Amino acid sequence: MATATATACFLCPPTARAPSLAPKLTRSSTPLATTQPDSAKQRLLSLIAGQERGLRTQRDPAALSYIVDAIDAVAALGRGAVTTGASLSATWRLLWTTEKEQLYIIENARRFGTAAGDVLQVIDVEGKALSNVITFPPDGVFFVRSDIEIASSQRVNFRFTSAVLRGRSWEVPLPPFGQGWFENVYLDDEIRVAKDIRGDYLIGTADVVLMERMRDGRVAWLVMYEVEKKMDEQVKDGGSPLLVEKLDQSRELSTSCHGLILMYVNLRKES
């Protein structure tokens, strides 16, 4: 998946829960692949509820087995469907994953005096772009950008292009590295289930309201980030004092943009 490295992680808020009741981890007497779509999906959502985005699952092989069975069931229902079309373009918030890098950050963020907040994956099929946005309230944010290419009806290839860790008044550019693919084995207007090149799974939910609220701030921030990179290169090459001043102003503006994103994320939590 487009989060296959420690510098490109897709997380979710500590309080995020799948829209379902807590699970009873028992195997169904009816083969999952033969159940109706809503039944198979609800079983999957019930199994991942309470799994703390996968933290509990990695210590519970039986739970993982049940969840993978449920994933196979919805994947069977989605077999042959096109899951890389326009409906893939959305802001996806993580519900559950087996990706070790993501789970490591979720579990260990407090060691660095913070906690992982809302973590989103913004996919733009037409624009051939994927952005991972990890928030560390109240002021931290981690952006990772990737180029994507639709490889088939369900597979998406990706390549990391840039990454930056930013606070209120500082930033640390990180060298992006890695490429791969992920397959959306199931997609509807509520959830997306994906499997990546390493065999890891990811389940996300579409956050339409948040997508609409954060679009302007996200686009503005990404544009300003690209401008800053070019200005910074010129400053390092001996730019004028006026250019240095403009770079400082640009950083203040882009910080405001990413602050806008954090504000909208917090609004969603309160709503």
Features:
single chain; alpha+beta; 5 helices; globular; disordered N terminus; disordered C terminus
SSE sequence, one letter per element: HHEHEEEEEEEEHH
Q: DSSP strand (E) fraction?
A: 25-35%
Q: Could you name the ranges where pLDDT drops below 50 across 5 or more consecutive residues?
A: 3-24, 26-35, 216-220, 253-260, 262-271
- Number of helical elements: 5
Overall, the morphology is globular
Structure description:
It is a single chain. The protein is of the alpha+beta class and 271 residues long. It is built from 5 helices and 9 strands. The chain has helices spanning 37-48, 61-78, 100-108, 208-236, 241-270, and strands spanning 90-97, 119-124, 129-136, 140-150, 155-166, 171-174, 179-187, 191-196, 201-206. The chain has an 8-stranded antiparallel β-barrel with strand order 1-2-3-4-5-7-8-9, surrounded by 4 helices. A hairpin with a 4-residue loop joins strand 5 (155-166) and strand 6 (171-174). It is globular, with a radius of gyration of 19 Å. The two termini are 30 Å apart.
